[in-house]
Amino acid sequence: MSDEDYDSDDSTVFETNVNFDASDTEEEESDTDSTDEDENFIHTPLRDPTRYIRLLKVQSAKKGFMPCCTIRHFKKDEAPDYRALSYCWGPEEYWEIEVNDAPFGVRENLQDVLEHIAEFQYYKKGYNITRWWWIDALCIMQDKESEAERLAQLGIMRSIYATAVETIAWLGPGNRSTTRAMKYITQLPLSTRKNMSDDTMTIANDDFCDDIEETFARDPRFAKAIDDIFTREYWERIWILQELAVSQNTTLVCGDGWLKWDQLVEFSINVAIADFSERRLRQARRKVMEKQPVWLISKMYRKSQSSTNGFSLATLIYLSEASKATRSVDYVHALLGMVVRGEGLRMKPSNTTKYGCETLCEAIRVMLKDMPSSKSWSEAKGSEARRKAKAGHHKPLSKSSDIRGRRKSCKGISCKTLQIARKMAAVLYSGSTLYHIGRTEQSMVFYRRSVERRRPER
């Protein structure tokens, strides 16, 4: 790969092969959101939050203009083609945008995205691009008075992302190095394609190492750019686990750079099994490995759809240990859409409590019921998990009305209920294989924090 390949102009962000649907122009006029007496934008409740969704359209604008949006209600199974946004909300500093001709406050990170979309559309007039978007902060009512509607919408979140024509994962503003690095990743000789034998995979991975190190020799900033991409706050958000796993077509965007999510997953797997000689590249490899659960969950989830070994709630709590959430209930709610077996299937955001501690206690009780069906279960592990479940300030297994009353005023953090849930999951799954690559000469066995090369027993 030449320097010219690495330095060439970047492809256009959001320009994908999505067909323009005539229904994009057919808005449902009877269901619109409105303004209040002070002329601020307010949401109108959905007719049925389990069957209807809001979609927004961003008006095209030059760089620097305030984003202007239009929001409409649609019956979910009759909605036009739309993109879904996956992003990190960021600090509570609000910037004004315009929604349905009225002012509305959004956080800075979302404002950056909306400006990016508006500018792209302005300079790409005439392109057949899908202009409807689903963005949680604008399409779900976030006020406390609308909690029932919000929980109902969270319950169909998996379907919202799964039926989007594309999910855009916004990592935040980029720079020249990250843009070049993302383009370069799309051009690397990756080695984990289906039906590849292990010896082919090993040779390909050697080529991968050589190519990476040649690039690093030409431009030492490449390793720093990889660091930058993998240390973004985006990767810490627990909701992205579901958003990336269930979406059928995901594009990662960092400023003006972009690449497909599947390409980044393949790149990450190759980096994980690589043996770099350069110290700076080994450091970058550690950053990639720290995010291993995020990029492996997508592969594991898709594989689990046709397997009896799909995700249980306990598996997901174990894998999401490093993830963060603003609301403590989201440590459970954000995972429910990926549960495909066990008692966790019975849990829905709309039928759990709104209290973090009680919801986490319910998750602990679910994990205990699922234990015997876990392939990593043993009597010793079961005993240790039960012992941990009985601990904690608010005793997750207690049905006492007094204890339940205390849970209602607790988020489940300071009382260590979240910590107990994660320790239980670790007892059940620590040391368990997450993912395999290869079946002949050698296999790569992935754990939550490490990768091991194995030769099969003969």
Automatic annotation (TrEMBL):
Compositional bias (Acidic residues):
1-12, 23-39
| Heterokaryon incompatibility domain ranges (all copies) | 82-243
Q: Where is the composition biased (Basic residues)?
A: 387-397
Renumbered to this chain, the Polar residues biased-composition regions fall at: 13-22
State the InterPro entries in the record.
HET, HetReg/Transcr_Mod
> Which portions of the sequence form the region Disordered?
1-41, 375-405
PANTHER family associated with the record:
ANKYRIN REPEAT DOMAIN-CONTAINING PROTEIN 39 HOMOLOG-RELATED, HET DOMAIN PROTEIN (AFU_ORTHOLOGUE AFUA_8G01020)
What is the name attached to this protein's record? Heterokaryon incompatibility domain-containing protein
Q: What is the lineage of its organism?
A: Eukaryota, Fungi, Dikarya, Ascomycota, Pezizomycotina
